[in-house]
Amino acid sequence: MIMEIPSSSNANCFDFGLCDYLQSHHVSSSTSTSCFDLALDFLAELDKDPWFNWGFEDLKKKVRLMKTCFLYVKKCRRRRNHEALLEPDREDRCNIMSENLRRSIICFRIQEVAIRMIHDLQPAYFQYFHSVYDLGFENFISAITRSKEKIKLFLETDLKKSCAAIFIDYYSPGDPRLVMDLIMCLLENLDCILSASELRNTIRNRLKLLRNLIGFVTMQCLECSQLTDLLTYTVVAAGRLISICLSDDEEAVNRMESEICQLLHEKINLFDLQVRETFVHVLTASKKQPRPSYALALRKNEDRVVGQFVGSLRDYLMDLLGSYASFQVPVKDQILRLHEEIRCLGILLKQEEKLGDEMKDLIGAVVSDVAILTFSLSVNEIKEGLPKEIDLVVFHLHKVLKYMVAEVAHNYPLKSPYSSFNYPRPNELGCMDSFLENLKELARCDEADDSIGFQQDRIEMIQKDLVILRSFLENIKEQRHQNGKLQAFWSHVMEATYKAELLIDLALVGDKCEDSLDAVSRDINLLKIDAPEIHNGQTQRVNKTSLHIPSQLTIAMHDEDLVGLKDEVETITHRLTRGSKQLDVVPIVGMPGLGKTTLANKVYNAPSVRSHFHVRRWCRVSQTYSIRSLLVELLCSSSSESSDEYHKMDENDLAMKLRQVLLRSRYLLFLDDLWDVEAWNLLKKSLPNDANGSRILFTSRYQDLSLHFEPNSKPHHLRHLTDEESWTLLQRKLFGTEDCPAALSEVGSQIAKLCRGLPLAVVLVAGILATTAKDRWEEVAKSLSSIVLGDEYCMKTLELSYSHLPDYLKSCLLYFAAFKEDEVINVRRLLRLWISERFVQQTEGKSLEKAAYDYLMALVNRSLVMAVGQRIVGDAKACLLHDLVHEFCVEKAKEESFLYVIHSWKASLSLIGPSNPQRVCVHKTTELKIWELTLICPNLRSLILSGHVHIECEEEYLGILLPKLLRVLDFGNSGFVYHFPMEVVLLVHLRYLALKGIGYIPSAIANLSRLETLIVEDPRGYANELPSTIWNIKTLSHLRVLDLFRIWPEGFIFPVENLEVSPDLDRLDTLDLAIDPSPQSLQKILRKLPSIRRLKCRERWNSSREATRNCNEILEFDGLSQLESLHLFGFHGCGFKFPLNLKKLTLTRNYQPWSEISTIGKLPNLEVLKLLEDCFVGEEWVMKEGEFPKLQVLKLSRLEFRNWTAFSDNFSRLEQLVLHRCKKLENVPSCLGECENLEMIQVKRCRESVVDSVKQIQQEQIDMGNEVLEIEIDNYDDTSISSEEESTEAESTPSEAEEVSSERESISSHHAVDNCESECTVGFNSSE
């Protein structure tokens, strides 16, 4: 049954003159809103139907707007001047009747649209529900389309003209809530019409301020008569916006933006004196009202009104800062201080449940005072300097808020930035060096005095004293571990350094604390004076021995524990007993606990090895050793003689004795646990090389140690156990030769899998399970990492590797605690974070990124980090840690006050540990409460979020209260849904910023004068359009914009206006760029970016070129002298000029003729060439002699050429050839068979003739002696691939690039690392 439209008999509410009009339409009229409610209920029901998953939200927003307009028009009265009100006459009464008729007609028309929509939709839906699906569904969709068009037409005509005029000329007495609803409905519809931009955000903030101000003063029971001016201004503003905005076609939207800008400047300018006086008037009046307590209002759940109003005050100040960017620095500091106090109010409001009634009433009064102060700020004062009275008021406000914070401190561990704190202890000298560099930069700044309010000489004094102390600390860094006084002095210096840095950084955000800095400066000076006396009095008594960390630990792990590594034993045995007759080394390398020693022992005692070698000797080297002890151990390891006689011999005699034992014998030396090359250098003079097949077998955590012995040696990387092998080992340790009970099989197998293939973990867990009740094995599985890490042997094994790291690598290793367990971490993202954290020191002749990559490889070499997904040339794409190492990093980072991981916000306070941590990583952002971090971590410098959550500005009006000293801020997968968190632009210390889902980048981003890395993922609206102020951020070095689904590349759009007066971004190294394909636009931008090293450049989607897409222009990149890597996407038919220093080039969808490729072939330094998806068109590619002289990698994908001709010198250095989906290609050039360096050929979905030619090349390579060539063929018969499969399985163009698929995704097991290469390839716009 179709729903009926309810009607009302209250016809007397309409003028009698309207009756005939209503009856002529044969529609029952109503003065109620039931028709709108019914329409909204009907649309809500439709939303529940799974077939309509696109939703009806936009339609519901329009209906809500019509309902609100209906109510307002029905209740409003015409505004008249004072004289007219005093002396009404007959003409006025006639006008009133005419106006009533006009309003009634408008109300009827609004109702009629809603009623007709229901009349149209209900029968169509009824037919769809009860008839044949296809016909009914199509009819219903048609009805929906008609309804949308009718409503759209009504909004653009009747409502836009008539209703807007009513808003401007009439007012609604006594109903502020109706005005607030009108603003909210207007905001909803503006969001649908306007694209995400700074303009839209400005409109939103101003309308929300008006709404929230009305709500705040209404909550305080202000009489409606005193609200008339405010309500009038608000409704007029709404009316003017409606008269401009209620159209959503593209042409109208483009036109309205300029009109809105003018409207904001002239009519909705909240900085206007008269407007601000109106605001101050209602706020002052509200304070004088006899009203219920603010505490009662909070209990009525009106705290959101107050919180929203406080948020609007903060937005107002931000708008003020952005509107008058040229005002004096002291004025800016005062406004920032006021902003900080408002932020503090917001935080207190979050603690509502911890506040008493008296405190709640005080908050209400303080909010009013803050608002009055904020709206009292004059534009002229801002330009010329604020009066002292403002300073006094802000100071008084600060005192009141300080009292309020103290009142709630016993309920909540609020912390002052100046409270005692445990500073990060890894790489303390490196942190001091970074601070000294910052002081130098500050000293070079011409505006240092104004920007921080300190005397220049004070900074210079701190800097000079710390330089002297830095030198002293360098001299005692080893001795301090053995001398309590030296360690205490070291700690005092570091604490004073961190405090000085903190105070100076606080001053830069407007929190001046001269007295505190004076005290710290005096402390530093006294420490400098005391340093010589401390040094002379203590170092004399220091015993200069290296730090000893015992490694001779025992554990029940024997040869019989070697499970499933038969292939490894055979490989090592083969290398020992066969091959070259010259003395050779066979290294076994891997992470701690992998079973290197067990494997080596198995091989050492194997019968085939025992019979092959005449002499076998072994010794454990470990971290601390002496050459004498090593020689004695080698001589005694296989001798029945007593070691007494060797202990009497000196070192030279022992070396000679060993040489005599080994001379003219085929010997095997097993050196266990080798840490550095020094031990080898001490031993090698005793080792003869008689060219008889002698071998040196050693184990080490260092992967490249053997290169110091023998440059051509290849280490054997010991693999992890498979899940099945881990389960077999666990059963053997627990049950011996017996079978595992069936009841324990499933949980036991799960526990073995959780050991991630590490034999040490399996053995340790077996020891725990052996003494654990069988019904509690599930508990062991749930807390496996903490149980294993709690084992003394395991902890000391990992501690040994950590302690042996140089200080600068300790910070880098512990930083892995910020990532999730099992997370595959994108290398470039990691390196940018390290650089932003100042872990990486500049090295002469190396870029910071290259130095950072060397740091990573040093950790890989020490078997603490695993590199996965190797790039086509050299570098690793991604890395990960074994679970055990990751858990060690998490615990060690917390112990060293380096970084804290919050897994669940419910227990965040207990997890934070010591006060004021500097780095926090939040792994569960669904419970995110960043404002709490501001309370408990005021000194926070780095915040990294992971998980998936949308941060809605409406829902989280105070959710983004960020600690003001942040240097690194990564929102991870927390998206902002077209919003930009304006709080960010106040973080003046920020170096690294990663955002997702924002709608625009505000011009105020220029306030981030230290920003180095900006990453925007999943940009919405105008988020990839950079404001003109971007040129003022001279520190920028890394600009990336990433598409969420990684389907198409994205790029930033640079502003090109007034470039001649804009500064260069001469530090910018990496850039994703989108441009119009005109040489003029490109050259204008590139001239401002002289240091670009990696550039990805795409043609803008709304390019101004003609639809033919033809382009005879040449885009010139040859002026970029530093450019090494270039990816070009689009630019249909354009030609290019490339710089001679280019090493890597990727082209996609350029549609150039093959004749143009000679330009590329002449590049003298090109090493990697990727030609993707129609970058060249034509049937034949003919390579010319002498082209591509240094080409190492060639990738061809989705190219429609048939014939390929080449010469052998084109491939003189080629190592890898990749062919993907070149479906017309008939074969590859036969001269590839002559290529001497060829290592890999990969063929995917090409013709069988191509596969045959590749196999022929493989045979020629084998005949030449090339045993390392790998051939990978993944081919299908083209005819068997359906169009559906094609769309599903096809590689998208972006997946051709060399980046990591997702830096935030994890893999299920470390055993999958071998297959990670294919999993870790993504597109042009891959995440970092």
Automatic annotation (TrEMBL):
Pfam family, one: LRR_14
Biased composition regions of type Acidic residues, renumbered to the chain: 1278-1289
Basic and acidic residues bias spans: 1301-1313
Domain NB-ARC: 566-738
Domain Late blight resistance protein R1A-like N-terminal: 175-382
Gene3D superfamilies in the record: Helical domain of apoptotic protease-activating factors, P-loop containing nucleotide triphosphate hydrolases, Ribonuclease Inhibitor, Winged helix-like DNA-binding domain superfamily/Winged helix DNA-binding domain
Chief location category: cytoplasm
Start and end residues of each Disease resistance protein winged helix domain: 819-888
Entries under InterPro entries matching the protein: Apaf_helical (IPR042197), Disease_R_plants (IPR044974), LRR_dom_sf (IPR032675), LRR_R13L4/SHOC2-like (IPR055414), NB-ARC (IPR002182), P-loop_NTPase (IPR027417), R1A-like_N (IPR021929), WH-like_DNA-bd_sf (IPR036388)
Subcellular location: Cytoplasm
Keywords in alphabetical order: ATP-binding, Cytoplasm, Hypersensitive response, Leucine-rich repeat, Nucleotide-binding, Plant defense, Repeat
Residue intervals of the Disease resistance R13L4/SHOC-2-like LRR domain: 964-1133
Signal peptide residue numbers: none
Chain intervals for the UniProt region annotation (Disordered): 1278-1313
Family from the record: Belongs to the disease resistance NB-LRR family.
Main function: Confers resistance to late blight (Phytophthora infestans) races carrying the avirulence gene Avr1. Resistance proteins guard the plant against pathogens that contain an appropriate avirulence protein via an indirect interaction with this avirulence protein. That triggers a defense system including the hypersensitive response, which restricts the pathogen growth.
Name of this chain's protein: Late blight resistance protein homolog R1B-16
Record organism: Coffea arabica (Arabian coffee)
Gene name of this polypeptide: LOC140010218
